[in-house]
Specification:
By secondary structure, this protein is mostly beta strands. The chain has one helix and eight strands, in the order αββββββββ. It has a single domain, classed as Jelly Rolls (Sandwich). Helix content is 14%, strand content 44%. Keywords: Signal.
Length: 117
C-alpha cells in the first residue's frame, strides 16, 4: 500500500512539473517533399481553407508527406490537392492521419490547396 501511495505522489509531482500541452494549430496541415535522391524538406505549414498556396518544391518530387491538423484528440479529415508550377493537376488525397502520398510520375510541385470541414 505504501508503494502505491509513493507512485501516486511521484506521478502527481511529475504532472505538476510538466509544461502545459500545446496542440498543433487546427488551421494548418503540414507537408514535406521527398526528392528522387532520397532527401526531403522540413515540414511546411499549409493553411486549411485558405485557397491555393504557392509552395514550390524546387525540383522533382517522388512523394509528399501530409499531416492533417490535430485537434487535441484526433486528426481532422483533410483533403489536399497538388498542382505543377504550370497549374496542371498532380492529384488529390483525403486523409485522416499522417500519410505519404506518391507522385506518379515524379514531378515538380508548385501549388497546394488543403481543405477541411
Amino acid at each position: 500500500m505504501h508503494f502505491s501511495a509513493f507512485i501516486a505522489t511521484a506521478l502527481t509531482g511529475l504532472a505538476a512539473a510538466s509544461p502545459a500541452h500545446h496542440f498543433q494549430d487546427k488551421s494548418t496541415a503540414q507537408i514535406a517533399y521527398t526528392y528522387s535522391n532520397g532527401t526531403f524538406t522540413k515540414p511546411i505549414n499549409v493553411k486549411i481553407n485558405n485557397g491555393t498556396q504557392k509552395l514550390s518544391s524546387g525540383g522533382t518530387v517522388t512523394d509528399v508527406f501530409v499531416a492533417p491538423p490535430f485537434d487535441g484528440r484526433r486528426y481532422v479529415l483533410t483533403s489536399c490537392s497538388f498542382q505543377a508550377p504550370t497549374n496542371k493537376s498532380l492529384g488529390a488525397v483525403s486523409i485522416r492521419k499522417p500519410t505519404t502520398v506518391p507522385v506518379h510520375p515524379p514531378a515538380a510541385v508548385g501549388f497546394v490547396t488543403c481543405t477541411s470541414d
